[in-house]
Amino acid sequence: MIVSCEIVKKHVEWLLDNGEKVKITDYNAESVVNDESIVLIMVRKDKDDNVIVFDEYGTKLYVLENSDSFYIEYIQKHPRFGLVVASEKIDNKWKDGQYCYMKNAGFIRQTNSR
Questions:
Q1: Chain centroid to CA 92: how far?
Q2: Where are the beta strands (DSSP E) in the chain?
Q3: Residue 88 and residue 96: Cα distance in Å, rounded?
Q4: Both ends of the chain: CA-CA distance in Å?
Q5: DSSP string across 13-30
Q6: 77: Cβ–Cβ under 8 A, 6 or more apart, which residues?
Q7: Residue 14 in contact with residue 47, Cβ under 8 Å?
Q8: Exposure of 11 in the CB half-sphere (CA atoms within 13 A)
Q9: pTM strictly above 0.85
Q10: What is the pLDDT along the chain (114 residues), one digit of tens a residue?
Q11: Distance CA 102, CA 114 (A)
């Protein structure tokens, strides 16, 4: 189980309940959120923003990238939906939408855009 998670000099580190420390140094993280077993890292690279999902041991599970229909605006730990990536493009306008990450399913839409 993940006890704590933080950005250290643009890299991400987290501590497991067994005392093991996991470090991800391949990415320059802008923000990070986690729950007990998943870490989301947001990496900004101009228009090629990514959210990379890791399990508690540092195994990369999923990469979400910007596309013509989806723009990554922010990540958060939502009280109702868990780990969330938000923002989307509807009718050529950017509107907030929330997608939570679920193991073995990727990102699932959780709210309606307004």
A1: 24
A2: 2-8, 11-16, 21-24, 31-34, 38-43, 50-55, 60-65, 74-78, 82-90, 93-102, 106-109
A3: 6
A4: 36
A5: EEEETTS-EEEE-SS--S
A6: 33, 34, 35, 83, 84
A7: no
A8: 8
A9: no
A10: 999 999 998 899 999 999 999 999 998 899 999 999 999 999 987 667 889 999 999 999 998 888 766 778 888 888 877 888 887 666 776 666 778 888 778 788 775 544
A11: 24
Do 42 and 74 touch, CB atoms closer than 8 A? yes
Amino acid at 110: Q
Pick the closest to residue 35 from 97, 71, 81 (CA basis). 81
**Distance of CA 50 to CAs 21, 38, 39, 99, 114, Å?**
24, 16, 13, 14, 24
